[in-house]
Specification:
The chain is α/β, with parallel strands linked by helices. Helix content is 27%, strand content 13%. The chain has 22 helices and 20 strands. An 8-stranded mixed β-sheet has the order 5-12-6-11-10-7-9-8, with helices on both faces. A 6-stranded parallel β-sheet has the order 13-18-17-14-16-15, sandwiched between helices. The longest helix has 15 residues, at 306-320. The protein is globular. Bound molecules: adenosine-5'-triphosphate (ATP). GO terms for molecular function: ATP binding; hydrolase activity; nucleic acid binding; RNA helicase activity. Found in a mRNP complex, at least composed of TDRD1, TDRD6, TDRD7 and DDX4. Interacts with RANBP9. Interacts with RANBP10. Interacts with PIWIL2 and MAEL. Interacts with BMAL1 and CLOCK. Interacts with Tex19.1 and, probably, Tex19.2. Interacts with RBM46.
Length: 692
């Protein structure tokens, strides 16, 4: 069964059978200057199909090739206002945007079949499922409304596009994709290495859909660009006052300065050129732990330097061991593999690895879905010591025997809770049981995130040596205190107006607006452009080229507003993001913490405003109150009331488990160390198998 069939099966009982009328002759698929048209058809059933009764889905905007709007002619005018950012998905919305279109609020005429997908986007449909090969699934964009771990998964949903013009081009292998789409997909049961390669599944033409040909631009070569960085903020020094807990046996002493780490001269020079003069708490604790060869699970607030916390000691070891890239070998055997859940994030980590290894013989390589497989292979065969990869592309490359795992000494899971949950957990399990992969006793495994639900911590035991150390900087799963959080009660039908009001007040300050679905991301971006607010968008239905273009336009100030789904919630480090607006709240509190963490980074301050709709967000009231109060933010009385009225006894802080694990789930007693930090020693973590 293909992806689309599966989606249809899930949705069928509730959706309208409406198929829009589409005037093909007015459609051309050129990237620029496309003309779109369709005839407006009222579709009252659609309201039944959308369990959210979302006003934004009733106005006829969406992603995919077919654009719906009554002001057809307006679309072709978009080239006339090039100042607007790129948004939209695929051919329907070219990179130049189309600000002149007009649509009317509450107009229910603008449906096409793709609207049905919003039912998929609605969390109620997705609980317990992890849809494989579904690049159009917002669940895969990090919202992960997971109801379990390694839970029920539909096997081998290959997700070939069916060529239906009105369907989103999910799973077409066309290079678009969210967190984990067809091009980042691992499918069991076929192929000599037990997982179906990306080429088999998406790029070689075995399934329908165009070949992915996108080759990302090469990284910068000039030193200034490589070491470009933004300034630490006024609260950087306050990091020192955050309590740090280390649990596990015989933890090495924290270091207080980079000098104490005894790094080689080249590495020290690179650290200085990167503008790092002082360690952040997670670095103070993690660097000596990793240098001592210990496994580590580290949890520290967003934007507090976790990337360097693992990269620097790994590089130090590789330098110490005299590792040099072996060029032009058909089978490369990297010493270090780093995985992260999104393409943009893994690319960012790669650029950091490249920066810190500048002037050394260590070669970092990045590979991710949505790009030409041949390009990934070409990068690897030129030499690869540190392989930065998204999971699907990694497994493809391993399956193609371009990567051997025998030399792996370091395995890093960034956003580790995400990498181990039901979405990526199975892939990660496969990775560690791949032929040649050293056992956990033989390698060093490092898990980093700002959130670590208890159940994920338990699962992580499979990946880590039993004597691993746990570093918790501040409250596990807590929000960054440099972000001023406000929660506004705003109903669905007032959200757009409120958004425009806020953005007009904000002016040109860089702002990320998070919405729940890909379609809504397109819709809101379009709407904002119509309001003359220069906006771009990023989500999993956009082609990789478009995603990177959108991020670039936002990063370099061309578009001060980025509308995003949760695909951009984790890890992205963009200078000067001053505001995050949760137009829609995410379904889990940990996702909220990650989203608002796109601002207030590295000691800078930021603001997060969230629209709370009592119709749909009440389940978040309780965890929100906790996150706000833990971060010493004002808690609105109305939110406390909702939290009280929806009180769940034994509340653990998350809709999917305990995001507020006080610390290490292995438990133990806490002692204060001399630096004023507390150090938690597990009673006997080796013997203590009873983590539950
Ligand atoms: N010691 C330091 N001195 C100055 N800047 C630093 C230092 N450590 C990290 N940074 C900078 O702080 C920013 C945030 O770091 P990083 O992206 O590693 O945060 P993170 O903890 O991984 O965040 P997230 O949880 O969102 O992934 C980056 O721009 C990084 O270069």
């Amino acid at each position: 069964m293909g992806d689309e069939d599966w989606e249809a099966e899930i949705i069928k009982p509730h959706v309208s059978s409406y198929v829009p009328v589409f005037e093909k002759d007015k459609y051309s698929s050129g990237a620029n200057g496309d003309t779109f048209n369709r005839t407006s058809v009222s579709s009252p059933e659609m309201d039944n199909g959308s369990s959210r009764k979302d006003p934004f889905l009733r106005t006829g905007f969406g992603s995919g090739r077919s654009l719906g709007n009554r002001d057809v002619g307006e679309f072709s005018k978009r080239e006339t206002i090039p100042t607007m950012g790129s948004f939209g998905s695929g051919k329907g919305f070219g990179n130049r945007g189309f600000p002149n279109n007009k649509f009317e609020e509450g107009d229910s005429s603008g449906f096409w079949k793709e609207s049905n997908n919003d039912c998929e986007d609605n969390q109620t449909w997705n609980r317990g499922f992890s849809k494989r090969g579904s690049e159009n699934n917002d669940q895969d964009e990090g919202t992960q409304r997971a109801s379990g771990l390694f839970g029920s998964r539909r096997p081998a949903l290959s997700g070939a596009g069916n060529g239906d013009t009105f369907q989103s081009r999910s799973g077409s292998g066309s290079g678009r994709g969210g967190y984990k789409g067809l091009n980042e997909e691992v499918i069991t049961g076929t192929g000599k290495n037990s997982w179906k390669s990306e080429a088999e599944g998406g790029e070689s033409g075995d399934v329908q859909g165009p070949k992915v040909t996108y080759i990302p631009p090469p990284p910068p070569e000039d030193e200034d660009s490589i070491f470009a960085h933004y300034q630490t903020g006024i609260n950087f020094d306050k990091y020192d006052t955050i309590l740090v807990e280390v649990s596990g046996h015989e933890a090495p002493q924290a270091i207080l300065t980079f000098e104490e780490a005894n790094l080689c001269q080249t590495l020290s020079n690179n650290i200085a050129k990167a503008g790092y003069t002082k360690l952040t708490p997670v670095q103070k604790y993690s660097i000596p732990i990793i240098l001592a060869g210990r496994d580590l699970m580290a949890c520290a607030q967003t934007g507090s330097g976790k990337t360097a916390a693992f990269l620097l000691p790994i590089l130090a070891h590789l330098m110490r061991d005299g590792i040099t890239a072996s060029r032009f070998k058909e089978l490369q055997e990297p010493e270090c593999i780093i995985v992260a859940p999104t393409r943009e994030l893994i690319n960012q980590i790669y650029l950091e690895a490249r920066k810190f290894s500048f002037g050394t013989c260590i070669r970092a390589v990045v590979i991710y879905g949505g790009t030409q497989l041949g390009h990934s292979i070409r990068q690897i065969v030129q030499g690869c010591n540190i392989l930065c990869a998204t999971p699907g592309r990694l497994m493809d490359i391993i399956g193609k025997e371009k990567i051997g795992l025998k030399q792996v000494k370091y395995l890093v899971l960034d956003e580790a809770d995400r990498m181990l949950d039901m979405g990526f957990g199975p892939e990660m399990k496969k990775l560690i049981s791949c032929p040649g992969m050293p056992s956990k006793e033989q390698r060093q495994t490092l898990l980093f995130s700002a959130t670590f639900p208890e159940e994920i911590q338990r699962l992580a035991g499979e990946f880590l040596k039993s004597n691993y150390l746990f570093v918790a900087v501040g409250q596990v799963g807590g929000a960054c205190r440099d972000v001023q959080q406000s929660i506004l009660q705003v109903g669905q039908y007032s959200k757009r107006e409120k958004l425009v009001e806020i953005l007009r007040n904000i002016g040109d300050e860089r702002t990320m607006v998070f919405v729940e679905t890909k379609k809504k991301a397109d819709f809101i971006a379009t709407f904002l452009c119509q309001e003359k607010i220069s906006t771009t968008s990023i989500h999993g239905d956009r082609e990789q080229r478009e995603r990177e273009q959108a991020l670039g336009d936002f990063r370099y100030g061309k578009c001060p507003v980025l509308v995003a789904t949760s695909v951009a919630a984790r890890g992205l480090d963009i200078e000067n993001v001053q505001h995050v607006i949760n137009f829609d709240l995410p379904s889990t509190i940990d996702e909220y913490v990650h989203r608002i963490g796109r601002t207030g980074r590295c000691g800078n301050t930021g603001r997060a405003i969230s629209f709370f709709d009592p119709e749909s967000d009440n389940h978040l009231a309780q965890p929100l109150v906790k996150v706000l109060s833990d971060a010493q933010q004002d808690v609105p009385a109305w939110l406390e009331e909702i939290a009280f009225s929806t009180y769940v006894p034994g509340f653990s802080g998350s809709t999917r488990g305990n995001v507020f694990a006080s610390v290490d789930t292995r438990k133990g007693k806490s002692t204060l160390n001399t630096a004023g930090f507390s150090s938690l020693q597990a009673a006997n973590p080796v013997d203590n198998d009873s983590w539950d």
